[in-house]
């Protein structure tokens, strides 16, 4: 004879919420799904918009107005990597909500040029919608600790969105104060709400971020095509062909530095770590260090476009060199956290490539050549010592 508690348990398991949880909360193990890859494509558009904002407003203010929205977007986009590590996107309801979140991210990307203006209300509204979708999906996770963890962190995510929403309606100084508060609220929230309870599956988490970085690297390839465009159009001549070769070489150099066995070593380090250590690694090595690398890629992409546009003339002295240095610094942080490889060559390269970028800014071809040489040396030394 069934007890009352058994009947109540069956009734709870048959409820719509419980069914959704069972459908959505398959094990976080396994490979990245096509749904996640499709979802990540929208991030390329956001990166493209930010790169364009940086290019069209050279200078510190333009750089901040391009990168600050990017930092906020990345926080929530990375959060979806944590989400699909705990909630597999196999259920129809989950896929539909992910498509809805994609739409919101795309709207955020469209509004990047206007986010500091009163008419840029769509960016924070779409961001808040993403926060809600993310929270709703996380509440379907099978692990109770993960559900409790997201409930602790959601208020911080929402608070940052509210600050971005009111920022354009305040005096300029107070607007900057809102941004200066919003970013720390997000990136310190795991510690304010205590980073615990999230369940991290190593293989999926490492692969997801590696593939996402690969997608972002596509922006540096797109930058070559943008740089090759001319107002009246032209056939490929020798200077343009050489510029394309150097641009592809720079993008390939960034790719090689990251994708030379690091994924396997990172996964191994993740698997050896305990539960709490995994959460810290996920935060520092992936959410944090990958943001640094993405910012570097954005600056390199802006620099490649500029260098091909001004192949024989002066170019921005900071974009290519500083972007490469930031990428190398981010990868050094990533390796240091995971103990997955040498960092000395990355640090030396980051220190050297900035003054080299300044010295070679007299011509686009020289600036790209300098960056390519540094990346080739780092990749070659690292590959030989690792083998």
From TrEMBL:
Superkingdom of the source species: Bacteria
Transmembrane domains' residue ranges: 66-84, 96-115, 121-141, 150-167, 173-189, 210-228, 240-259, 280-305, 317-336, 348-381
Alphabetical list of Pfam families matching this protein: LtrA (PF06772)
Keyword field: Membrane, Transmembrane, Transmembrane helix
Keyword rRNA-binding annotated: no
Protein name: Low temperature requirement protein A
Species whose genome carries this gene: Nonomuraea marmarensis
């Amino acid at each position: 004879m069934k007890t009352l508690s058994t009947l109540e348990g069956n009734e709870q398991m048959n409820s719509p919420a419980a069914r959704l949880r069972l459908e959505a909360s398959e094990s976080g193990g396994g490979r990245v799904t096509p749904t996640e890859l499709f979802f990540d494509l929208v991030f390329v558009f956001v990166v493209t918009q930010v790169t364009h904002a940086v290019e069209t407003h050279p200078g510190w203010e333009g750089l901040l107005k391009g990168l600050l929205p990017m930092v906020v977007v990345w926080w929530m986009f990375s959060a979806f990597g944590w989400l699909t590590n705990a909630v597999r996107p196999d259920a129809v309801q989950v896929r539909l909500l992910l498509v809805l979140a994609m739409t919101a991210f795309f709207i955020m990307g469209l509004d990047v040029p206007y986010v500091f203006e009163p008419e840029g209300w769509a960016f924070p509204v779409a961001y808040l919608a993403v926060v809600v979708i993310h929270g709703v999906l996380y509440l379907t996770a099978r692990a109770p600790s993960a559900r409790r963890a997201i409930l602790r962190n959601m208020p911080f995510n929402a608070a940052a969105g509210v600050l971005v929403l009111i920022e354009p309606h305040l005096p300029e100084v107070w607007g900057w104060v809102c941004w200066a508060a919003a970013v720390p609220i997000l990136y310190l929230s795991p510690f304010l709400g205590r980073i615990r309870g999230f369940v991290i599956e190593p293989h999926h988490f490492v692969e997801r971020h590696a593939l996402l970085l690969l997608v972002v690297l596509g922006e540096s390839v797109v930058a070559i095509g943008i740089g090759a465009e001319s107002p009246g159009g032209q056939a490929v001549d020798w200077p343009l062909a050489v510029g394309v070769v150097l641009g592809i070489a720079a993008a390939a150099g960034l790719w090689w530095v990251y994708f030379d066995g690091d994924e396997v070593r990172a996964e191994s380090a993740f698997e050896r770590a305990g539960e709490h250590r995994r959460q810290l690694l996920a935060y520092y090595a992936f959410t944090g260090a990958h943001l640094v690398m993405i910012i570097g890629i954005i600056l390199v992409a802006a620099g490649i476009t500029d260098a091909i546009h001004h192949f024989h003339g002066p170019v921005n002295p900071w974009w290519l060199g500083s972007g490469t240095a930031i990428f190398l610094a981010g990868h050094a942080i990533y390796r240091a956290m995971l103990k997955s490889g040498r960092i000395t060559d990355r640090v030396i390269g980051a220190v050297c490539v900035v003054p080299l970028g300044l010295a070679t800014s007299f011509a686009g071809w020289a600036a790209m050549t300098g960056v390519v040489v540094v990346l080739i040396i780092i990749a070659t030394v690292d590959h030989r010592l690792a083998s």
